[in-house]
Amino acid sequence: MMKIFPKLIRIKRPCLLSLAMVVGFSGVAFAQDPIARRNDVVPALAEIVYEKGMKFLAASQSAEGSWNDSVGEEPGVVGLCVAAFLAHGEDPVDGRYAVNIRRGIDYIIKQQDPTNGYIGSSMYNHAFAAKALAEAYGQVDNPAIEPALRKAVDLILSAQQRNRSGGWRYTPDSRDADTTVTGCQLVTLYAARNAGIAVPDDAIRKALAYLAGNRAQNGSYGYTSLTGGKPTLTAIGLLCQSLAKERDSKGYQASLDYLRDKLDYRDPYYPYYFEYYMSQALFHADDALWREWNERNIRYLSIIQASDGSFPGNQGPSFNTAGALLSLALNFRYLPIYEK
User: Is pLDDT above 60 for 215?
Assistant: First the structure.
């Protein structure tokens, strides 16, 4: 059974976005040009939903940088909330949510084990927290981000080396793997690469091979085997293939066709986790299909959003809201991971 945070079973203001390109091991970062994005018009309703969601996240954050609900102290959830601000292009230096972003980053860094780089109590937490560090690196003026990110990436890589499957599961010492934990580690490694952190090609290849071994002929991905495929897992698998530029294989097209029939699907247990990955998978795979999905998703989220800007569900309003907003973030495209 998939558990996003196993410890808790219950589970426009554009900024000058820069990539940190690291030269050797000097730790010296150089700001790059802002990321190019198409001049698409952002749907007005998407902007309204996003603005309401950010206001909720800002109002419900604690002084320590976490969020005041059942999962809001998990560093992975904090990472998703921070990413939701950055994905809208919020200025982390002197913008309206700069304090929220900096508090969240500080909280994540404080949760990291200084000896081995592990963040939180599960590899889910570790991946989403590390991904936020990668997305903040080069934007947030905090010298602690780079060493924390390097340690986090080193832990992901060392955990994979110990894993006989070439993937990841719940803990750094796990010897087995599953597609959802493996997928979130792999996306985090790509985000780290975008930030200029060295990631061996072999680590990427091993992870992709593990994922491919869980893909059935119809393109669906299973949890720990190629049976029992699900849309959420397939979205994760397709996204990882897209980020690897593996779009020409039969398996890739089969997965896209599988998801093409799931535009109205809502994961009954982890709906915002599904939407988070579905939006990215379709965006990278098929522009017309993503636009169709995006239009439906905007309408759906606008209907279920509460008056305070949060989103309902059993995972806690911080996780729900961050996941919902990030499923809309492709409309803004301020993060490197959201660029084709």
Answer: yes
Cα separation values, 170 from 163, 231, 274, Å: 11, 21, 19
Report yes or no on 20 lying in a domain: no
Q: Which residues contact 201 (CB under 8 A, 6 or more apart)?
A: none
H or E stretch including 29?
Answer: strand 29-30
Map tokens 């603005």 to a residue: 51
Cα separation, 205 vs 202, whole angstroms: 5
Q: Is position 24 within any domain?
A: no
Tokens standing for 46? 């998407």
- Domain around 68: 40-338
H/E stretch holding 172 reads none
Give the pLDDT confidence of 277-309 residue by residue, as tens digits: 999 999 999 999 999 999 999 999 999 999 999
Q: pTM of the full predicted structure?
A: 0.90
Q: What is the CA radius of gyration of the chain?
A: 18
Would you tell me the crossing angle of helices 123-136 and 145-162 to the nearest 10 degrees? Answer: 140
Q: Does some domain include residue 15?
A: no
pLDDT at residue 18 tops 70: no
Q: What is the CATH number of the domain that holds 127?
A: 1.50.10.20
Residue 26 in domain: no
In the chain, the number of structural domains is 1
